[in-house]
Amino acid sequence: MATVASLMERHNGKCFWCEQQCIMYPGANNRPNAATRDHLFPQTDPRRQIPTQFSQVLSCRKCNNERGALSFEDYAAIKWRCISVQIVDQFDFSAFTGRAA
Q1: How many domains does the chain have?
Q2: CATH number reported for the structural domain that contains residue 75 in this entry
């Protein structure tokens, strides 16, 4: 089983889901950006049979709580679609359209 400390190192301290910096120190457990371990697949999913070091990721407490019992696919669709919409909304298309954004 991967430890939170080993996941912090593997993910450079960033949440797998939102890429926010996670924190790990005494007393930080209840903070939204506290480092937690998240299983990508529930116990009932056959993909859970992959080695533990690949089936667990670093997650901030906020994302881990938001995800709850959602499947990997369902939460990824929610989380990453929102991120991609934010990126598209901020992108300057004027170079492609010839018009200012």
Answers
A1: 1
A2: 1.10.30
CA dist 5 and 2 (Å) reads 8
pLDDT tens digits, 27-36? 788 899 999 9
Place of tokens 């457990």: 29
Domain of 14 in residue numbering reads as: 4-97
Q: 54: phi > 0 → left, psi -120 to 50 → alpha, else beta; which?
A: alpha
Neighbours of 67 (CB within 10 A): 19
Decide: pTM greater than 0.85.
no
Which amino acid is present at 59? S
> What does R_g of the chain's alpha carbons equal in angstroms?
17
Q: Are strands 35-39 and 56-60 parallel, antiparallel or unpaired?
A: antiparallel
